[in-house]
Specification:
- The chain has one helix at residues 68-80, and strands spanning 12-17, 22-31, 35-40, 46-50, 56-58, 62-65.
- It has 82 residues and is an alpha+beta fold.
- It has one domain (4-80): SH3 type barrels (Roll), CATH 2.30.30.
- The chain has a six-stranded antiparallel beta sheet.
- The radius of gyration is 12 Å and the shape is globular.
Length: 82
């Protein structure tokens, strides 16, 4: 499992948007000193993420995963309660 801190240009992350309960895939489009710029595929949303020593980052609005299987399982779990 890759850590967020180890992401490289072109790597994919998996995003669960909590507000509208959707699943998206984002690609690393720019690497800065401590920040990663990500571009989502489906909703064309760009956002920045600090480099963390974790493979899953949970915020009030979204959950970001580096592992696809973990993201899909979490999304299924969320859907089962909504």
């Amino acid at each position: 499992m890759k850590l967020i801190n180890d992401l490289k240009l072109g790597d994919k992350v998996f995003v669960i948007n909590k507000s509208d309960c959707t699943f998206d895939i984002a690609e690393v489009v720019e690497l800065l000193d401590n920040i990663i710029k990500l571009q989502c595929y489906l909703n064309n949303y760009t956002f920045y993420l600090w480099k963390y020593q974790e493979s899953k980052h949970d915020t009030p609005y979204k959950i970001i995963f580096t592992d696809e299987n973990e993201a899909v399982e979490e999304f299924k779990f969320i859907l089962s309660y909504n």
